[in-house]
Design brief:
Length: about 220
């Protein structure tokens, strides 16, 4: 069975709920201030306590992990992240394993970063220790998904994507679909990740910010 993807837009930050024969997997969790909307969307999709089998984080930034500890407690689902981004959620340090100065960050992203910093100061991240550290050997088949984890460093050292057998790529912040959004910590890592994606069968991209788009646009967006 192919996985069914539900996009949950939490004010410009996307989470993705994947449904399979055995339950649900949630990719990313948004920010704490949008928790009510997230709860509503998950419940509307028919996901009840016991149905959520895994919370998989594309990277450790607070706008993607803000509700993880809460959802783990509510649904009893384990939280998974790449080992290189684990210090972000364990210590609440978004700069962990990143350069002091990113290689490329757009002005609008810098401004939004300042706003997000103020938001986090008012609503501190509920830090947590991940239950699972994932890499490209991680088996999503045991959660009922015909999909695999793809390591995509660039935005962060531990950034990952989820690629389904249908060619749908949930890519976190590897790509954006909002004007002016760009944040690359390490350009050499990013280029290597881009080259990896060029060698994979991808039909549609589901970004962390903005609407899904055709994979044919990947090369143009990456320039």
């Amino acid at each position: 069975m192919s996985s069914e993807i539900t996009t949950i837009n939490l004010g410009g930050v996307n989470c993705y709920l994947l449904r399979s024969e055995t339950g649900f997997v949630l990719v990313d969790t948004g920010v704490q201030t949008r928790r009510a909307r997230l709860n509503e969307a998950i419940e509307s999709a028919g996901c009840k306590p016991g149905d959520l089998k895994l919370i998989l984080l594309t990277h450790g930034d607070v706008d993607h992990v803000g509700n993880c500890a809460y959802l783990r407690s509510k649904y009893g689902a384990p939280c998974a992240i790449h080992a290189k981004d684990a210090p972000m959620v364990e210590d609440g340090n978004m700069g962990a394993n990143r350069k002091a100065k990113p290689d490329k960050v757009s002005l609008i992203f810098r401004l939004l970063g300042l706003f997000a910093g103020r938001l986090v100061a008012k609503n501190p991240l509920e830090k947590f220790r991940p239950d699972i550290l994932v890499d490209e050997r991680f088996d999503l088949g045991s959660y009922g998904l015909k999909a695999k984890v793809v390591h995509l460093p660039g935005h962060s050292k531990g950034s990952i994507g989820v690629l389904t057998s249908d060619g749908d790529l949930i890519c976190g912040d590897m790509f954006y679909n909002l004007p002016g959004f760009r944040s690359i910590d390490d350009l050499s890592d990013y280029q290597a990740s881009l080259n990896k994606l060029r060698g994979l069968k991808i039909e549609r991209v589901y970004p962390g910010h903005g609407r899904p788009f055709s994979a044919a646009a990947i090369l143009a967006r990456a320039r």
